[in-house]
Amino acid sequence: MRYVIYARKSTEEDDRQVLSIEAQITELKEFAAKEKLEIVASLCEAKTAKEPGRTKFAEMLEFIEKGKAEGILSWHPDRLARNSVDGGKIIHMVDCGFIKSLRFPSFWFEPTPQGLFMLNIAFGQSKYFVDNLRENVKRGLRQKIRNGVWPGWAPVGYLNNPKTRAIDVDEKKTPKVRKLFELYAKGDQTLYSLANWCKENKLKSNNEKELRVGAIHKILQNIFYIGLMKFNGEIHEGKHKPIISKKLFDKCQEVLSKRGKVQEVRKHHFAFLGLMKCKSCGCSITGERQKGHNYYRCTKKKGLCQEKHYLREESLVDQMQNFLQKVSLSSLDTEKVLFELEKEEILAKEQSKITVQNLKVKLEEITKQLEKLLDVYLNEIITTEEYTLRKQKLINEKMEISEQIKDFEQNGLSWLEPAREFVLSLAKAEKLKKSEDHSEILTFLKNIGSNHYLQNRKWHFEAKIPYNLVAARGGANSQNLTFPIWCPRSDSNRHAFYGICS
Ligand SMILES: [Zn+2]
């Protein structure tokens, strides 16, 4: 994925805490290098984001619309959009699929409860931006579907039209896609032979990747080709032109289901099929039954692979349950932590109320001082320079306090719900660590991590934050979960800064 760096700093006083443009660029470039992000352009702007009409901003959007980049890397969401017009533009471009990634070095974001939790901790200010973005994207997607326009990337054989936002037929690829269906409908081709056919006939995906078995399987089942769209499990009529007849499509489904049956049965027996990849060669892991036991091994589809070992399913489940043990929380401890969270909630609410009250009193005082200052100035007791200087100082204070009030009022308790969900998921792990329900274990592990792989009879995976931290600490209990897992950095900041202590 290619990224554009966007840096901005305005001359306004409420922007004074922000890094200089040079510093933003340097930090962003370092971040990009660390994260291995490909940067294709850097744009900086010395204007405010509160009013629409920034030229570099427009340039950046155009750049992305032309397909020269798919992601934006910026210091903070508020660098990108503080007015609804520009925010809307970004949202719209995410919606249309032009922007596939938004990255900010100071936090990562995933739309899971835990992701939201971490985000809320990391940021107060941008919460509304990101929340709205997510909601608007969903809303936008639904609207597009209702209008008969596919909101995502066009499947091979079609193209996204960046101007009309519609999906056009790709005249070059369409005949080959049609041929693919025709070949498969005959019933004497396998998905592998079709993959080879694609290679020989240079039919590639829209991002120029080779079409492998999985992709071909998806193509053959995609009702998009007959003019329909499936979204959230529901079928809608599309406005795009069908390129496959219903008859040909149905014929392919028939062949698929006949061939698929063998696989279905196999899948039923191997609960963890499709989860792991081989560490040595990256191939998928397949299942094999021997002497009444299930084994998992590398498919070795890419040729040579050093992995010689088979992993017995019982051993795999053991390893998984061992991990679950590390992120599980007993029901007694769960109750304790939830109770603590509730107490925290009440306390935080009270405290933020008091704090807001005090801040408002301060704000009033400053307003009065400003009035007095003006009187003094008008009576020519102080010089213009002195007046400007003192006024500036008071206005700065006023802004700071207003912002603090906003923080307390808006973001005071936003971390609590995700925190609760996190605790409940640890309780779920407790139940699963003794469970025989392999599919539930699978779902849970998929939710809390990724990159499952197999190496030398060992199962590995990358657990997400904060599960990885809990696991690294060797287990959760009510002591280490309340404190230090959620430990306030200081009493005055407890509304916002609940973090994980390492
Ligand atoms: Zn392998």
Q: Would you mind describing this structure in some detail?
A:
- The protein has 502 residues and is of the alpha/beta class.
- Among the domains are: 2-146, Resolvase, N-terminal catalytic domain (Rossmann fold, 3-Layer(aba) Sandwich), CATH 3.40.50; 165-269, Alpha-Beta Complex (Hect, E3 ligase catalytic domain fold); 331-413.
- 52% of the residues lie in helices and 14% in strands.
- A 4-stranded parallel beta sheet has the order 2-1-3-4, sandwiched between helices. A 3-stranded mixed beta sheet has the order 9-13-14. Strands 10-11-12 form a 3-stranded antiparallel beta sheet.
Q: What's the gyration radius in Å?
A: 28 Å
Number of helices: 17
Order the strands across the largest sheet as they lie in space.
2-1-3-4
The CATH superfamily of one domain is: Resolvase, N-terminal catalytic domain
**CATH-level-2 architecture of one domain:** 3-Layer(aba) Sandwich
As a percent range, the share of strand residues is 5-15%
**What is the 3D form?**
globular
Binned, the helix content reads 40-55%
Intertermini distance: 32 Å
Number of E-type strands: 16
| Low-pLDDT segments | 109-130, 482-502
